[in-house]
């Protein structure tokens, strides 16, 4: 997409809405220049929001992208999962230092002894020490996540001692998602809708293709021979089994922005009500474990969020075949005025 992002300014305040609008005038041109079939962006500066959209949700149908268009968010889902877990911490149901097996006795990796030492915080910070790339299909029903945790996670190698260092772990997020299901006695999708989407006023959200039919929904695009960049034959390229790590959850940039604003407002929803305690929201954005070999700026992981540089910016990305997405939040300026940005969502 090119370097269209907005940089945080130290000391002298933040980008203005006018500056954002000027930069986004290039959005459509950049999308076309880089061959992106469709993209959308929403940026909030204080209480004002600027949106832009370009291209189509599907080159086969030619339907335009709008700010309401729904795109899969993939691994950004991990921050939503972390937020659901931290709500349980706020309520005193679980603690960050609790061993996972205290609440989920069926959890274990291939090393039963090491598994008994893995804590909730280890999973939130990707320091559980076990193999993390787990997307194996289980069932297509409400028990898909349970089957993944009970049948597949126990086969994963315990590579190193829990807490040793950061290693990105989608399997760990699956375990946290299952923990949420058990504590709330609902499916992961039901809990996310009730505990996050509803209080944030989010309606443009889909967990599967059936949900997605109710919206202007983007399909992924990829190079396909003589056709060039063309729609994939299916909407979902990942199985149902790991919704907590980011397999199919889709939403509009407006929805993603509402979630980011809640975090930047220290846990307050659009109506002023509490979604998270202020202390918990801040703790999620605080660097805890360094991420080795970060390619651009020094990076650490907080409780779900990735923390960039000196901590003024947090974010998370997500991608799968045909999709790429990024959400970032920044706080800066002498008056601590806050601003948020949701980077381009693209099908391609």
TrEMBL record:
GO terms for molecular function: hydrolase activity. Residues 29-320 form the Beta-lactamase-related domain. InterPro entries: Beta-lactam-related, Beta-lactam/transpept-like, Diverse_Enzym_Activities. The keyword Hydrolase applies. Keywords: Hydrolase. It holds the Pfam family Beta-lactamase. This is Class A beta-lactamase-related serine hydrolase. It comes from Glycomyces terrestris.
């Amino acid at each position: 997409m090119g370097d269209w992002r907005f940089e945080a300014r130290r000391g002298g305040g933040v980008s203005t809405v006018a500056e954002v609008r000027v930069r986004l005038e290039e959005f459509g041109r950049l999308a076309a220049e880089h061959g992106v079939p469709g993209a959308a962006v929403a940026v909030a500066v204080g209480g004002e929001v600027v949106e832009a959209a370009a291209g189509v949700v599907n080159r086969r149908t030619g339907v335009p992208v709008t700010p309401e268009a729904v795109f899969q968010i993939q691994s950004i889902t991990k921050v939503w999962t972390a937020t659901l877990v931290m709500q349980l911490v706020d309520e005193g149901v679980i603690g960050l230092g609790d061993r996972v097996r205290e609440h989920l006795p069926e959890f274990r990796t291939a090393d039963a002894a090491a598994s008994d030492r893995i804590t909730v915080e280890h999973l939130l910070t990707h320091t559980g020490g076990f193999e993390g790339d787990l997307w194996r299909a289980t069932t297509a029903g409400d028990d898909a996540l349970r089957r993944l945790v009970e049948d597949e996670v126990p086969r994963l190698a315990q590579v190193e001692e829990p807490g040793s260092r950061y290693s990105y772990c989608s399997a760990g997020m699956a375990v946290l998602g299952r923990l949420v299901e058990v504590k709330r006695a609902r499916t992961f999708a039901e809990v996310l809708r009730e505990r996050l989407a509803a209080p944030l006023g989010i309606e443009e959200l889909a967990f599967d293709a059936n949900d997605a039919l109710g919206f202007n929904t983007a399909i992924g695009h990829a190079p396909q021979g003589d056709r060039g960049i063309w729609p994939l034959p299916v909407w979902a390229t990942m199985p149902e089994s790991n919704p907590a790590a980011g397999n199919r959850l889709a939403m509009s940039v407006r929805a993603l922005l509402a979630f980011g604003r809640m975090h930047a407002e220290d846990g307050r929803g659009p109506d002023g009500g509490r979604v998270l305690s202020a202390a918990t929201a801040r703790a999620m954005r605080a660097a805890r474990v360094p991420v080795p070999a970060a390619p651009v700026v020094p990076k650490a992981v907080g409780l779900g969020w990735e923390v960039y540089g000196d901590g003024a910016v947090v974010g998370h990305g997500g991608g799968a075949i045909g999709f790429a997405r990024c959400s970032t939040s920044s706080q800066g300026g002498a008056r601590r005025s806050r601003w948020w940005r949701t980077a381009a969502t693209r099908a391609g």
